[in-house]
Amino acid sequence: MSSAKTPPDQGPDRPADKPGGRGAAFRRATTAVVDGLRTAGASLSTPAGSTEPLLASAPKRWVRMLPHLIALGFVATLIPVTVQVLTHDYGVGGGLAGALGVAQAAPLLLAVTRPLPAWWIVIIADVMGAIITMASDPDRPGPWTPMIVVGYVVLCCTLSLRESRRTLLGVWLVTVVAGLVLGAFHGGDGQDTGVLLIVLSGAVLLLGALLRERGDARRKLVEQETISETERSQRTLLEERARIARELHDVVAHHMSVITVQADSAPYRLDGLPDAAREEFGSIAASARESLTEMRRLLAVLRSEGVNGERAPQPGLDRLPHLVEATVRAGIPIDLSRPELAILTHLANVSPAVDLSAYRIVQEALSNVMRHAPGARTKITLSLDDENLLILVVNGPSTEPPSPLEGTGTGHGLIGMRERVRLVGGTVDVGPLPDGGFRVAARLPLLPKGSGTA
């Protein structure tokens, strides 16, 4: 029996195991490392877009000045201490020690607004200072002096509050490389401070970044809540306007129907009408029918999905005693101040829009009492002046805890009141009372603005 030959791509010498295959993998790894270094270099060379000082948005002036004062305090402390330590402990010349002290500490003032450029200055000055101090006295702590450690940690605080994660990672990697390389050349018996700076800078950068991101998330959440609340209020307003328009449909449709009937019957009720007048009445009736049809289409647009049309007649002030009776049964004691007979006769001639709006205002006021002040004694007063219907609903403080399900309310009550009052051209005043109660005072014109008398 002849043995099958091993395919060339499955034998021990397949291309993946050849040096050329390993070379391709090495090239890919090298390319990835170079791309990562290029990205890190771009991050380290591109500071944050904002040059606004730290805490610049704080409401109080002394808080806004606090970063500048802290940076000034560190600079004023580190420069003389650095000069003193370098000259006396490390044997560095006075002029060179002063230049190193200024180069290592003064950029902290710049870090308040531009921390990344300040870091470039500091890291170069720190590396130069480490080389000089190790050459001067290798038996002292190195490669970083204690002043370098303190200033660098403070600088990391400002970086973490402004720069991105990628930039912070690049800063820490540079710190690690510089510390390890300089630590390898640090001879003598002095304490190695390279690892100390690596650990402290990494912890500060990580903690500062987490605090900053937490603050950013909280601010975005507050902004989103504000936007959501505004959108919710706008949506509620639009819903109330649509509901009011649906309720007024019957009122307007009634008037349009009357116009249609009068125009259609005019040629039969009035003798001796010329042909031109008959045509005019016919045109009026046709326009009224067309308007009524368009109103029905508008009502279909305003009606929410899944909401059936309202079949019952719209209520008015004549239904107010029934509303009060139902509310009293719900546990709200109410005193209704009814107008005299002459006033009732006058109210019989009030416009349908005002009649409906007045009823709804009282209804919304009583609903708010039930939600926010259950058990509170409430007084409703209706009165008239020369041209206005006056509505006053006053409730005392609550005698029972608000319902946990409706304690927060929906806000529709006050929005609905204001929209109805605006609709008929009146005014409304709502607000709490000193004793803990609440007051709703509305003034509605007996005839809405823009209407005329027959």
Helix content: 55-70%
- Our count of domains comes out at 3
Distance separating the two termini: 119 Å
DSSP helix count? 13
Biggest sheet architecture:
5 strands, mixed
The backbone outline, from C-alpha atoms, is elongated
What does this structure look like?
Its EC number is 2.7.13.3. Residues 357-446 form the Histidine kinase/HSP90-like ATPase domain. This protein is α+β, with helices and mostly antiparallel strands. The protein folds into 3 domains: 51-225, no CATH class; 236-302; 317-445, Histidine kinase-like ATPase, C-terminal domain (Heat Shock Protein 90, 2-Layer Sandwich), CATH 3.30.565.10. Helices cover 62% and strands 7% of the residues. The chain has 13 helices and 5 strands. It has helices at residues 19-44, 61-88, 94-105, 107-110, 115-136, 146-160, 165-184, 194-269, 275-302, 320-329, 341-347, 352-372, 412-424; strands spanning 334-337, 378-384, 388-395, 427-432, 438-445. The protein has a 5-stranded mixed beta sheet, covered by helices on one side. Strand 4 (427-432) and strand 5 (438-445) form a beta hairpin. Helix 6 (146-160) packs parallel to helix 8 and helix 8 (194-269) packs across helix 13 (412-424). The termini are far apart. Mean pLDDT is 79; it is low at 1-6, 8-19 and 403-411.
